[in-house]
Amino acid sequence: MNKRMIFMLFMSLLLTACSSQPSRENVEVAVASDWLVADNVEMRWTIKDGQTSETGRGTLIRLDIQRDDGKPIEEFDTIHEKLLHLIVISKDLSYFNHIHPEYKGNGVFETVNVFPAGGEYRLIADFKPTGGDFMTKMAWVKLGGEPATPVPIVPDANWVKTVEGNRVRLSIDRMGANEETTLTFSVTDEKTGQPATDLQPYLGAIGHVVILSEDGEQYVHVHAVKGQGTGPDAVFMTQFPKSGIYKIWGQFQKDNHVFTVAYVVNVP
Ligand SMILES: [Cu+2]
Predict the structure, then answer these.
(1) 119-166: per-residue pLDDT in tens?
(2) For a designed S-S bond to 184, which of 65, 171, 215, 231 qualifies (C-beta 3.0 to 4.6 A apart)?
(3) Cα-to-centroid distance, 127 and ligand 1 (Å)
């Protein structure tokens, strides 16, 4: 018996137990059995070195998204202006890329990425099948070629970073596992010291934030608080699932250019 059948059985038992109107039961069960959850969606990852793209010679990343019965999932809802978001992070968390593979139809997405070196990488895909939950699928892949010397993951003593002329201060209201936590990024102009008031929406939000634990196992969704303006503050809600060291990447857009600022934090 597969998971979906168990789920249906569970739902029918539940509905039989709860409902005094038997005529409605079947309708609700049918809806529940069709809804796609992460457990009945499978992702196959294919990596092929030596492909050519506009950006150079790179590695093809192909994602096949299917139901657990092998049927491709054909339709996806747009989230933050894209059908699928792919995050690529090196094992030592020093390399980060956020890309949007092209949808080829039939549940297949493809992109060519120029990796900085060989070795292990974490691939993380966020998407929402039409008629299903928002979901995340992750994989480790190992690329041929010489791996780079690992960069140690050390918590930052200073949470002010300067990237491409932008000085960004990160404030975290509460450092603890499993607590509602607010991250505030405050952006000022490096040269003038003036607060930046010209942040542009990036993928339909004031910015995007990705968080990954040191071991690559805990990927944290971060949601921009709605209705934010153009800076200097960008506010996000999140939760660290357990104690440990995490890296946080914030991505913001100014002058039609996206910049990425990263911090390593220790969650007690
Ligand atoms: Cu994206």
Answers:
(1) 999 999 999 999 999 999 999 999 988 999 999 999 999 999 999 999
(2) 171
(3) 10
The two tokens of residue 152 are: 């140690």
* Short-list 44, 48, 72, CA closest to 58: 48
Q: Are 234 and 184 in contact (CB under 8 A)?
A: yes
Residue 56's pLDDT is: 61
Cα–Cα distance for residue pair 185/231, rounded to 1 Å? 9
Tell how far the Cα of 98 is from the centroid of ligand 1, in angstroms.
6
Q: How far is the CA of 205 from the centre of ligand 1 (A)?
A: 11
Q: Set out the domains of the chain in order of their start, with CATH numbers.
A: 3-34 (no CATH), 39-143 (2.60.40.1930), 160-267 (2.60.40.10)
For residue 263, the surrounding DSSP H or E stretch is: strand 257-267
pLDDT tens, residue by residue, 184-193: 999 999 999 9
Q: What is the DSSP letter of 38?
A: G
